Structure formats: C-alpha cells, structure tokens
Amino acid sequence: MMSLWVAIGGVLGTWARFALGNWVARKWMPLFPYGTWIINLTGAFFLGWLAGREAAGTLSATWYALLGTGFCGAYTTFSTFCYEAFFLWWEGNRKKAVVYVATSLYLGLLAGGLGLWIGVGRI
C-alpha cells in the first residue's frame, strides 16, 4: 500500500514541477534557469520541513511516503539541474553556470536546513 502513496505523490509532484517550471520558463528562462532553481529550492525546504515533522512525531510514515518520497522525489530534479548547468557552461555562459551551481547548492542546503528547523518546531 505504501507504494501506492509514493506513486500518487509522484504524480502530483511531476504535475507541480511541469506547471511551475513551464510558467517560470515562459517568464525568465532566457536569462537563467529559474524554473529548476526555484523548484529545487522550494523542494529542499519542503522536504526538510517534512523530515522535521516526522522527527517531531507529527507526521506519519504514510504521509512522509506520499509527500516526501513521492511528491518531493518527483518535484525536484537533479538531472535537469546538471543538464542546465552543463549547457550554460557549454554555451559560454560560464559565470552563470558557476552562479547557478553555487547558489543551488548553498541555498538548497540552507532551505533544507531551515525547513528542518521549522519542522521540528524550533521556530
């Protein structure tokens, strides 16, 4: 049964990534890969928050499977991040590539940590 919850979360996460990514790309993609950047940062925050709620004992394993493994697993995208970073570098936008990688890493860790901190009730 847990696999079904993961699958349902995956469908919802995939749809959310598709919708948000396309909306952001239509507005700002020529400048920077903001769609993937925003998706991965919000996904890191949400997964951190979910992990905090689970650690605090206020989120069941079923909800974590649905939202953490399913939704966040499908919503966030490491492969697209790698492709976009490589493509920026390949096209000669080396400064943008470095900024993209550095901000994704550092802000992603910060977002995940903040989500965890809020999730366990420290804020």
Distance between the termini: 34 Å
What is the number of beta strands? 0
User: What is the helix/strand order?
Assistant: HHHHH
In round numbers, the mean pLDDT is 95
Largest sheet: none
Structural classification? mainly alpha
Range of strand content: under 5%
Poorly predicted parts: none
Q: What is the helix fraction of residues, given as a range?
A: over 70%
Number of helices: 5
Overall body shape? globular
Count of domains = 1
Using only CA atoms, what is the Rg? 16 Å
InterPro entries: FluC
Family: Belongs to the fluoride channel Fluc/FEX (TC 1.A.43) family.
Membrane topology: Multi-pass membrane protein
Keywords: Cell membrane, Ion channel, Ion transport, Membrane, Metal-binding, Sodium, Transmembrane, Transmembrane helix, Transport
Quick rundown:
It is globular and about 50 Å long. The chain is mostly helical and 123 residues long.
